[in-house]
């Protein structure tokens, strides 16, 4: 683990903890940081020993957005050709479950990054928002869609048009966040959730993630079709046989990932 890295990676058995590490810039998501994050995420996704990924931020922010200084003089063509959109799509394409442990500001691209994760937990001092309107732009990495699904159209519209932020408690009330805890116990809480997921069949976890994602990304009819396909598919796995046999034999299952 190098202290200079823009993303620090700690492996704890089946859990990888990735820490955004530009605290002096509130973890603003520069192209280099995003590239480093993608490199780590894709390495974790390819590593069979890792079951769950946690993303958090060093210092007082999760991430205060895309790097404004890096974008300030960009032309539309720069934005198009920089590969920025493709980069963000690679974050959302990770197959393993990703938990965002939001330790402070999650603004703009930082809020969008959290919403690309599968589970969001927050410390009591976390703040969520899409303040792009204050910069003369709008969210570009999914904020108008994912925040609207999480908060409902009226509260999301208010936040996106005014640039206001919401607290961890309000995010909890809306279901954007599933748990709020004191800052000092945030990572332990994320680890607890990750450990529980890590005991399940990784195949079932991956196919469940895909099916749940469909609920937000497609129609109910298409989502139901994916759910059914994945449900049937799991009956081809050794883990399904093991899970059901273990239940019948009143013992804990031993999932192999096959
Ligand atoms: N980009 C670059 N630098 C930042 C950013 C950022 N988003 N946020 C904070 N910083 C830097 C500050 O410039 C400052 O650096 P320096 O010390 O060199 O001046 C340092 O971090 C500390 O920040 P502050 O002094 O401002 O700290 P405060 O505690 O006073 O304020 C805030 C904290 C309220 C979080 C404030 O920093 C802020 O408003 N930050 C900007 C938030 C924002 O507007 N975010 C949205 C950015 S745009 C975006 O995310 C679009 C995503 C689009 C993706 C599209 C892909 C296709």
From TrEMBL:
Top-rank EC class of the record's enzyme: lyase
Top-level division of the source organism's lineage: Bacteria
Any single biological process term in GO: fatty acid beta-oxidation
PROSITE patterns in the record: ENOYL_COA_HYDRATASE
One Gene Ontology molecular-function label: enoyl-CoA hydratase activity
Keyword field contains Lipid metabolism: yes
Pfam family, one: ECH_1
EC number assigned by the record: 4.2.1.17
Catalysed reactions, semicolon-separated: a (3S)-3-hydroxyacyl-CoA = a (2E)-enoyl-CoA + H2O; a 4-saturated-(3S)-3-hydroxyacyl-CoA = a (3E)-enoyl-CoA + H2O
Keyword vocabulary terms for this entry: Fatty acid metabolism, Lipid metabolism, Lyase
Function: Could possibly oxidize fatty acids using specific components.
The family this protein is said to belong to: Belongs to the enoyl-CoA hydratase/isomerase family.
Name this polypeptide is given: Probable enoyl-CoA hydratase echA8
Organism: Chloroflexus aurantiacus (strain ATCC 29366 / DSM 635 / J-10-fl)
């Amino acid at each position: 683990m190098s202290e200079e890295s823009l993303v620090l990676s700690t492996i704890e058995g089946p859990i990888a903890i990735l820490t955004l590490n530009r605290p002096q810039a509130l973890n603003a998501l520069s192209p280099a940081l995003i590239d480093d994050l993608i490199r780590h995420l894709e390495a974790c996704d390819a590593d069979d020993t890792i079951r769950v990924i946690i993303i958090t931020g060093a210092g007082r922010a999760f991430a205060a957005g895309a790097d404004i200084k890096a974008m300030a003089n960009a032309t539309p063509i720069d934005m198009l050709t920089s590969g920025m959109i493709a980069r963000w799509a690679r974050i959302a394409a990770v197959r393993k479950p990703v938990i965002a442990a939001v330790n402070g500001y999650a603004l703009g691209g930082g809020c969008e990054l959290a919403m690309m994760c599968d589970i969001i937990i927050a410390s009591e001092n976390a703040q969520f928002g899409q303040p792009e309107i204050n910069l003369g732009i709008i969210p570009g990495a999914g904020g108008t869609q994912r925040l609207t699904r999480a908060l409902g159209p009226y509260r999301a519209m208010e936040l996106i048009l005014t640039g206001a932020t919401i607290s961890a408690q309000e995010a909890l009330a809306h279901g954007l966040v599933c748990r709020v805890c004191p800052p000092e116990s945030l990572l332990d809480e994320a680890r607890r959730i990750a450990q529980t997921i890590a005991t399940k069949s990784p195949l079932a976890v991956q196919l469940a993630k895909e099916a749940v994602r469909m609920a937000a990304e497609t129609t109910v009819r298409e989502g139901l079709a994916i759910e059914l396909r994945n449900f049937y598919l799991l009956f081809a796995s050794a883990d399904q046989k093991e899970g059901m046999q273990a239940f019948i034999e009143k013992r804990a299952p031993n999932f192999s990932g096959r």
